[in-house]
Task: structure prediction
Amino acid sequence: MPQTLAVLVGSWLKITRSECSALYPDRLRLAANGLYTGEKDPPGAFTLWDAGTWEVSGPGQIRISTANDAIITYRFTHSGDRLRFVDPDGCEFEYRREP
Result:
């Protein structure tokens, strides 16, 4: 597995609480097979990333399939136990790796 993929695989907890980040899951699990699941708190609430596929498509770019079956490219950065995304509208939100 390429280094970039290896550091992204795992469970992540959203630490950003902003209006624009409310569309995204509170917990995100990125699997090595290119699948993901997203969960809101409380469970069952709508999230744009519910379940689907993900792939790193270039340096700092990740393609994620969304709840409406669109595949959207997001920018991302990873540093230590933090994973930050920027959506196409400029919304920035960050996750911390769960132990």
About this structure: The first helix runs from residue 3 to 8.
